[in-house]
Amino acid sequence: MTSPDPVAPAGAVVVLPGSFDPFTLGHLDLARRAAAIAGRVVVAVSHNPSKRGLLDLDTRCGVIAEAIDADGLGGSVEVRPLPAGLLVDFCREIGARAVVRGLRNQVDLSYEEPMARMNAHLAGVDTMFLLSSPALAHISSSLVREVAGLGGAVDDMLPSASARALRAALAEREHRA
Ligand code: PNS
Predict the structure, then answer these.
(1) Where in the sequence is the domain holding 132, given as residue range(s)?
(2) In this structure, how many other beta carbons lie within 10 angstroms of the beta carbon of residue 2?
(3) What is the pTM for the complete model shown?
């Protein structure tokens, strides 16, 4: 008996882009699930100067590398800064077959749909949407930043490297104020 043909060849690359400020357990879950589908996942961290951020790009990349390692995903998931320019150009450069994004709700879908359609139009790059795991669907980086900034508990929504970096950044901000 022959084994079934794989849908995607082993080693297919997908890109999980975002600002990851901070990288949450929801993001880690997406990376883990994408890696189970594709051979290799590149977490692409955007500079995103337009967003009011907390962690700088180097810190975010370091945190993600540590979280990936701690989760045992180092063999299939890697982190890279997203160069300035179009995401589809980065996809082409690294030979990625698709973009992966998470969806928690309809609001996410409204935000994602135009970008996915544009990326498909520009370069034929498809977007694979993964529904967020129900236990993590309340987590967003912006809310984590807000809650943490107001003194709320966020550690159970973050990989430990992220929680540490967030605490350090908030302490630094308080020190400067
Ligand atoms: O986590 P975010 O901040 O919602 O991620 C947004 C991201 C990085 C996916 C988006 O800003 C992006 O794709 N930036 C790269 C620039 C680009 O290609 N823009 C056109 C997209 S249609």
Answers:
(1) 13-176
(2) 4
(3) 0.94
